[in-house]
């Protein structure tokens, strides 16, 4: 593995003679390597240079040939080892040097993965690229925890939202359309929301969503040690704290969560009060 504080030295070289290279944005799925698309798995097996994030599981990375260069561009203990602009610059520089590279991202590149920004950077620099989709964490978590994302008796709409804090210093807040998220008959899935779950719970209740609405956290979905923690909109923050839930985890809110009791994994793997 190459970490970006070290100078980049590559063992492989597929530099096309004088031509510009190519970037493939690849969705690595939620973790279980069997959930890669066939196209993504083939691209990984043929890779010579891979830039990957912290959410890409070890099992997925193992598909990359030992001879390929791997560059870690994810977070190191809360800090980005390379800011987003730096990742784009690096991809552009490598591709301009003729390299063909895989940009491997957890889940789907176009769902909260900043894949859109990276694609824009590539377009701006005139680098040819393509995108291989991945199973997003919401889909992986739904299947693995027995919580359908939509269901005729429960939800006709699915909203994917980010619980990430935005803004400067003291004014950092979760800036979401709470009125929209508090609507009935929909499922709300929140990415990156573990730290802000108390705010999310309070705001949704303040905007009219009942405190007894079923809600769950799925931690490490599809990965070894996956946990599904079930409660209600009101109780989930406390339950998550008690069980020391850590990222990566997804929050699911809506009456579809009640289906977990019927469709979910055996009770021994489940924590919480359904
Ligand atoms: N592009 C990714 C999302 C990147 S944002 C996708 O499509 O899934 C990162 C967030 O995704 C994490 O904070 C977490 O909320 C969620 N996530 C990613 N992998 C996960 C997993 N295996 N289990 C639960 N949540 C996951």
Describe what this molecule looks like in 3D.
With 274 residues, the protein is of the alpha/beta class. Helix content is 26%, strand content 23%. Helix 3 crosses helix 4. It binds S-adenosyl-L-homocysteine. Residues 30-31, 55, 105-108, 111-113, 136-137, 141, 191-192, 218, 220-223, 247-250 line the site of S-adenosyl-L-homocysteine (SAH).
Classify the helix fraction into a percent range. Answer: 25-40%
Q: Termini distance?
A: 43 Å
**Could you give me the name of the CATH homologous superfamily of the largest domain?**
Tetrapyrrole methylase, C-terminal domain
Number of strands: 14
Q: If you consult CATH, what is the topology of the largest domain?
A: Methyltransferase, Cobalt-precorrin-4 Transmethylase, Domain 2
Number of helices: 9
One letter per element, helices H and strands E, the order comes to EEHEHEEEHEHEHEHEHEEHEHE
What is the alpha-carbon Rg in Å? 20 Å
Strand residue content: 15-25%
The hetero compounds bound to this protein are: S-adenosyl-L-homocysteine
- Tell me the structural class: alpha/beta
Low-confidence stretches: none
CATH first level of the largest domain: Alpha Beta
- What is the second-level CATH architecture of the largest domain? 2-Layer Sandwich
Strand count, sense and barrel status of the largest sheet are: 6 strands, parallel
How many discrete domains? 2
The overall average pLDDT, rounded, is 90
Shape: elongated
């Amino acid at each position: 593995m190459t970490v970006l504080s070290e100078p980049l030295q590559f063992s492989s070289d597929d530099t096309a003679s004088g031509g510009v290279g190519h970037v493939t944005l690849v969705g690595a799925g939620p973790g279980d390597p069997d959930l890669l698309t066939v196209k993504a798995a083939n691209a990984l097996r043929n890779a010579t240079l891979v830039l990957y994030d912290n959410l890409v599981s070890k099992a997925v990375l193992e598909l990359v040939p030992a001879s390929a260069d791997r560059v870690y561009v994810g977070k190191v203990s809360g800090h980005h080892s390379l800011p987003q602009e730096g990742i784009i610059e690096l991809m552009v520089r490598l591709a301009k040097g003729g390299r063909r590279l895989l940009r491997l991202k957890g889940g789907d590149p176009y769902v909260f993965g900043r894949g859109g920004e990276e694609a824009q950077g590539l377009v701006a620099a005139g680098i040819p690229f393509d995108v291989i989709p991945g199973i997003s964490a919401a889909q992986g978590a739904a299947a693995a925890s027995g919580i359908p994302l939509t269901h005729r008796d429960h939800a006709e709409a699915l909203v994917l939202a980010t619980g990430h804090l935005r803004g400067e210093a003291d004014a950092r807040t979760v800036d979401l359309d709470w009125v929209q998220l508090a609507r009935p008959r929909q499922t709300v899935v929140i990415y990156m929301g573990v730290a802000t779950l108390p705010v999310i719970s309070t705001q949704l209740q303040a905007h009219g969503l009942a405190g007894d609405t079923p809600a769950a956290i799925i931690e490490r979905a599809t990965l070894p040690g996956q946990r599904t923690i079930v409660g209600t909109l009101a109780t989930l923050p406390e339950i998550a704290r008690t069980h020391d839930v850590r990222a990566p985890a997804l929050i699911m809110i809506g009456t579809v969560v009640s289906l977990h009791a019927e469709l979910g994994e055996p009770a021994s793997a489940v924590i919480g009060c359904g």
